[in-house]
Amino acid sequence: MNLRSPASRNKEHQASSTGTAVKTSATHARLISRSRVTPRRKQSREGVTGGKSSISNLSQGDRDILLRQRALAEVQQGNYLEAIALFTELIERNPDSATDYNNRGLVYFQGGQWEAALADYNRAIELNPRLDSVYNNRANYHASQGDLLEAILDYDTALDLNPGNIRAWINQGITFRDLKMYEQAVECFDLALCMGHQLEGHIYAERGRTYHLWGDWNCAIADYNRAIEALAQPKQATTGLAARLRLQVNVWLDELTNP
């Protein structure tokens, strides 16, 4: 999705101050993506698959909608190969669909097929250079490979196209933090908070971690407590991600209060 997984960041990466791409040994996994291929609500597999006779009576547009619903259901179940096959079918039916390439790329990324993900992101950008979500996703790929400066550039492009892309602000803040550019990281999180209450628990958690590493422990503790409170709200705790992040924030808070 993708904010980057706090559980995979127990060790902060060392960052180069040179102008070349920064390489890190660990792999980042982002848990939130603006165009994340998760459905808005759970659907039964029976409800999205349907029978062959009903499918044959649908228009092409309705068939595409049904295929996307089936792909989303497979992703939700963790069946990445099945989801990729469905998105591939969609791409064959709609070869100029940047969104379908972007979504298939995200599934490739979630399944650890890095090069296939990058190829799909690049193709999506060729088809629609103004699709901000694909730049955010490609930036997540670069960050996962340790190419942090390349990631920053793609986040910049995503935000130029859509300044309201909260996930890109959060992800860029995390990447600045990995580069030890703490002031710039905090600015990203501040701007994300200005966008509204969406994902505020995640934002407070990441800003708190930044203050923590920067040495401002009072601000870190305050943000950790805000994050724990926000992540307990139903609107934030809609997936296991919020619960996992709350556990991680509690670990970080314990590091400060019980050294």
Task: Describe this structure as you would to a colleague.
The chain is mostly helical and 259 residues long. It folds into two domains: 1-9 and 24-162, Serine Threonine Protein Phosphatase 5, Tetratricopeptide repeat (Alpha Horseshoe); 164-259, Tetratricopeptide repeat domain (Serine Threonine Protein Phosphatase 5, Tetratricopeptide repeat, Alpha Horseshoe). It is 65% helix and 0% strand. It has helices spanning 45-49, 52-56, 60-76, 80-93, 98-110, 114-127, 132-144, 148-161, 166-178, 182-194, 200-214, 217-231, 240-257. Helix 5 (98-110) runs parallel beside helix 7 (132-144), helix 7 runs antiparallel to helix 8 (148-161) and helix 7 packs parallel to helix 9 (166-178). The longest helix has 18 residues, at 240-257. The two termini are 32 Å apart. Residues 5-53 have low confidence and may be disordered.
